[in-house]
Automatic annotation (TrEMBL):
<dbReference type="Pfam" id="PF00780">
    <property type="entry name" value="CNH"/>
</dbReference>
<feature type="compositionally biased region" description="Low complexity">
    <location>
        <begin position="529"/>
        <end position="542"/>
    </location>
</feature>
<feature type="compositionally biased region" description="Basic and acidic residues">
    <location>
        <begin position="483"/>
        <end position="493"/>
    </location>
</feature>
<keyword id="KW-0343">GTPase activation</keyword>
<dbReference type="InterPro" id="IPR050989">
    <property type="entry name" value="Rap1_Ran_GAP"/>
</dbReference>
<feature type="region of interest" description="Disordered">
    <location>
        <begin position="404"/>
        <end position="433"/>
    </location>
</feature>
<protein>
    <recommendedName>
        <fullName>CNH domain-containing protein</fullName>
    </recommendedName>
</protein>
<dbReference type="Pfam" id="PF02145">
    <property type="entry name" value="Rap_GAP"/>
</dbReference>
<feature type="compositionally biased region" description="Pro residues">
    <location>
        <begin position="543"/>
        <end position="552"/>
    </location>
</feature>
<dbReference type="InterPro" id="IPR001180">
    <property type="entry name" value="CNH_dom"/>
</dbReference>
<dbReference type="GO" id="GO:0005096">
    <property type="term" value="F:GTPase activator activity"/>
</dbReference>
<dbReference type="InterPro" id="IPR035974">
    <property type="entry name" value="Rap/Ran-GAP_sf"/>
</dbReference>
<feature type="domain" description="CNH">
    <location>
        <begin position="92"/>
        <end position="387"/>
    </location>
</feature>
<dbReference type="InterPro" id="IPR000331">
    <property type="entry name" value="Rap/Ran_GAP_dom"/>
</dbReference>
<feature type="domain" description="Rap-GAP">
    <location>
        <begin position="1"/>
        <end position="70"/>
    </location>
</feature>
<dbReference type="GO" id="GO:0051056">
    <property type="term" value="P:regulation of small GTPase mediated signal transduction"/>
</dbReference>
<feature type="compositionally biased region" description="Low complexity">
    <location>
        <begin position="413"/>
        <end position="428"/>
    </location>
</feature>
Amino acid sequence: MFTPYRLSLFSEESVPLFGPSLPCPPVFHNHQEFREFVLVKLINGEKAAFNTPIFAQKRERTLDMLIKDLYNEHMSESRTPWEPQCFYPDFPHDIVCGDSWGNNKLVLGTESGIFLIEEGLTHRMIFDKTVVVKQVSVVEAHGILLFRTDRGRDSRVHVFRLSDFEGDSAANSLVRTRADLRDHKLERTKGCHLYALSRPGGSHLRMAAAVGRRLLVLQWRHSAAWTTWCAASDTDTVDGFQLVRELLVPEAPALLTLVDSPDNHICVGYRHQFDLVSEKTGDATRLHTVDAAKAHLVAALDIYEDDEAELLLCYNHTTHFQKLNDENTTEFDFQWNAVPDNIVCVFPYIMAFTYESIEIRLIINGNLVHNMIMPKLKLITSKSDIFFVSTAPEFFQVRKERIKEDRMERDSSVSPPSSPHSTGSTGSNDGAKPLRVYRISFSCLTGNSPCERRVPTPSLPSPQPLLATPSFGSSYLSPDFQEGSRLRPDVRPSRSATASPVPQMPLLLPGCRSVSPRRPGLHKDHTHSASSDSGLGKSVSSSPPPSPHNHA
């Protein structure tokens, strides 16, 4: 004779209903049936508990991390150090200017206003379309945001605190308008058409603002060290900048670059020449004259070797190395395939950005390394990492095949895990391709922090490089390729490209891709059901791991 069993079940309200349903009355006379019923009920109850919001979010995060780790480990063997990562998949406005904020945020200026985008989140407007800017700078060391409005003679430089845009409070989420600029404008910069800041890492923040033929040299009243120790006390905006002196130059500058040296200088680019102006005396020295009927000045980059500054003067198709010390003048030029819009120097590479390509060369001898075609390309910033925007589709390599994905709905069988903000398209109106923000990490290229870039000067001019993209892979830094370089014993880093501190692939930071032997690809052999009801015929092996909160 069998003892009857009565079953009662209790569960939290957040747990979904799960079967099998209890008989009425819930009394079992056969212990085998009772055993099977309890086992199935508990299995389904455990799976239902995992579908509650708390457990579901934890499970989703865990699986997301596991899948990304697997993808990074098995699917990225042949990634080149300059291959970009998609930072933001769909931005709906054409970008005019921008700057990076920390490691995962960008401040972007558009014709529709100023936006803040953060990796993993939806973009947020911080200034509406009444505020049109042409330059944006984020100075994390002092906690300030600077931008230059474009209103002709009424254009000015404005200063805001970064803390005004942090957090989720109502005040920080407020969309500001032109009326909010009234108390944040530097009156001295009225009519400013260009400004430049000193490079990060200096003791004091300096700014040179061009107002017609006048150069205003301003300095932030507090040092970076003081701001670090007394961050709560540093709440200045426009009052933080103090006028150091005013300089007069022959014509309105087209380019400005602040050069850090014991006697600070400003490199000023005009229509057909580059001058070096002393901040203390205002004396100008002719650096280089552009012999061209239609000169197009691109950039003047300050680089340093053994704390000695020199300049890369870029105009038309040419990049010219210019020593500031006349005793050590280096005549070394190389030509680009196309006229660049922007130049970025990240040792051992120098990169030229055009409207449709990124041309990468070795700074040692100007040899062409790679030419990357990306449509509607525009550089955003290269302060900490290289950020640029393009309509190029996201891509990655699988077994020597480049898989391109130009749809907003990704193919989950080959694509990496999607970002939380990549579920919808807001910028592909009327069938237009979305603007994607890409990122190339400095650490993947050099392994050095951005503020410690030291670029050796070329030792010898190399022969003019061919104007065709070479067909080579990982041998782009091989001795056979660097025939124009020279080896010499020196305690300093060698100026030869073959011995230069190129990226050490096994030592790349997490998220950087290295060149390694081919590994087998991922296989979709194991699939877990998301159902909360297993049924008698389903295998227990496909259920989630045991829950620490089992129902009795």
